[in-house]
Amino acid sequence: MRRIPRIPSVASALSSSSTASAPARSAAACLLKRDIATRSPRTTQLRSQTCAHSQRRYLSVSSRSLSTAQQVDTDVARVLEEEAAVLQAGAQIPSREIQTDLVYPRGVVEAPRSTDVTDPEYTPAETAEGLEEVGGLANWWEDPEHWSASKEYVGFGPQEKVTDPAVLEVLTRRAVVEGLIYTRYAEKGCKNPLREIGGREEMERALKVEVDVAEDGTATLKKSFKPVWADLNRPTPEGKPVTAEISPADAQQLAKSWDPKWKTISLRDPVTKFAVAKRIQRLTGHVVPDGKLFGINTAAGLVAQLIKPPKPKKLAEEIATKSELVSLPNVRVFPRRVTPVDKEKMVGRWKIIVQELEKRELPVVGTGNYGKAVEKKWILGKA
Amino acid sequence: MAGKGIRNLSEAMRALSLGAPQTCRTTLPVRTASSICTRSMATEAPLPNITRSVTDAWQPLATVPVTIYSFPSLEPRSLESWSTKHLHLPLRRDILHLAVIYEGDKTRQGTASSKTRYEVHGSHRKLYRQKGTGRARRGDKQSPLLRGGGKSFGPKPRDFSTKLNRKVYDLAWRTALSYRYRRGELIVTEDGLELPLPDDFLQLAESGVLGTELEDGFVRKYVRQIMTGLEWGKPNGRTTFITGDHRPNLFTGMEVAGEEGRALELEDVDVKDLLETGRIVIERSALKEMIKEHQSDLVSKVMVNGTRQKGPSLGQVIV
């Protein structure tokens, strides 16, 4: 695996000549100066050792420009002199704070190697018992106190997918109406294309738009759709987006009140279909893949696709949910193979078997220290 | 299905209408008599309505839509239309098999090597005389029959690669992509696919206060969160990211969190990679390049009447 080299150590920066532009150079020198100023004398020594050997593995655009700009000869030399002066003076300079909400271990002190210890009374421990536990940063970030909420993943859709069929139907109608409106105005350009969710009001406004559906599925929007376009165009407010939630009961009632003809609205136009799919993803969290999407040509098809539960991963799950096998009196369905141990457990003999085996100090499962039967290879004709 | 058999001879005769002379009309209701012969239609798939009139011409699908997403939010950003010959080919398992075997053969190192009796070091002196020792006759120490001797028919370095017609191999590439597309496992992202690590973390990493263990631990968790949020991670069969060139954060991130997926440069990808893992996430330009490089069966280098076959266009932007 190729690696990106870490920022070159100060020594290598000194030796390398660069053609960085003047502003970049001064900025780099400034940054470097601050960087150096943060270190206490002890850590400076440590870091200059580690930096030379380790590699930088993560890059940002800003840091990349920084690293190229850092290969500055004259400025670095000046900064180094200043650093030396600071170190000699032993002055305490407030450390440069990186604005972060992550909690990371600070002030790590490395213990000297046992060979470096000069104390004659020192004797290395021979067992780990009674020693203080140190290190172990492998699970540092698993602690919620160290992690921060700003690092959580935020997708385009809601965190939880909408699964209720009635709610899905209502949201599909909203998406279809908004998709149709988008198509109508798409040429004018959309400032915030189909990202805005809005609150309860916006949802009601979109659901109130009446649609006339022709025999061939062509939809004509009736009046009162302009405010919906305005809602779609509004820039997303700062902070958490407002979400409109609708209860399944309300959704059911609402869906019944509509003329079922709306489900015949044609989605053949690719622009409309794209807009509808994007809205669906934003509102429900369902990503309709392209391979499925191009076969969906009506609103009803889209609703059916969204409502369809995901395919069970295991055969046992499928049988347990919908097969008539479950209701048969002489059939039982197990999620995994029924082992001899399971059979013993079913008749309540397993505990006794375990007791008896333990009494004789025999392994409960497997062969323990005894290994395989010696006779086996004779029977199989291998010896 | 049970009950497909014939119960007895008379029924069989009846079914064959070889019994007592009956008119056609009387033989017809036999079906109802042997109701056990009829099959429940529960398992039969309904036939699609494939009948079409002679008047309306058959217009096969020419293009399929491809949504271009942003990463990692997965926001649909634009829509393109691609030829069905690029992304909607019928599944040909045989061609995929040929391609995977071809690649496997080509990748074999073929460096296994053993010494023959003529290459084993040592003297070729006869071990002992031919007759009179009471032992089996022996030549030299390097004989394959002896321990430490040469290998009679051992492996020698060789090239295992087999051949596959270029057009078949190219068809396999697009068949693999089409298979993914149809299953909804081909996600095309905008150009510049990269893992967006948070700024503060990058600054911390830059200043070196974290150290490799903490840096990698952070990235591992960060990647895991994204992959779980997208349902692309380990429980969903991992993900292959394909980019045009090396992207430091994405590649290192996927290496650190290898259980969630992997990242490949376009030049390192082959058909087998396209068929592995739960889904393929590829940036738009990489997909374009990939298909452009693998359409020899659609384009021609030969000019006929001043023109040459250029093949379908590589993705047209709709939205």
Topology readout:
The complex is a heterodimer of chains A (383) and B (319).
Chain A: H1 10-15, H2 22-38, H3 41-53, H4 61-69, H5 73-89, H6 165-185, H7 200-208, E1 211-213, E2 219-221, H8 226-233, H9 248-257, H10 270-284, H11 290-293, H12 299-307, H13 315-322, H14 340-346, H15 350-359, H16 375-379
Antiparallel strand pairs in A: 1-2
Chain B: H1 9-15, H2 24-27, H3 30-33, E1 63-69, E2 76-83, H4 84-87, H5 93-107, H6 166-182, E3 186-189, H7 199-207, H8 211-230, E4 239-243, H9 248-256, E5 261-265, H10 271-275, E6 279-283, H11 284-293, E7 316-317
Parallel strand pairs in B: 1-3, 3-6, 4-5, 4-6
Antiparallel strand pairs in B: 1-2, 2-7
Main location (chain A): mitochondrion
Protein name (chain A): Large ribosomal subunit protein mL50
InterPro entries (chain A): Ribosomal_m50
What's the short story on this structure?
Chain A is mainly α and 383 residues long. Helices cover 44% and strands 2% of the residues of chain A. Chain B is α/β, with parallel strands linked by helices and 319 residues long.
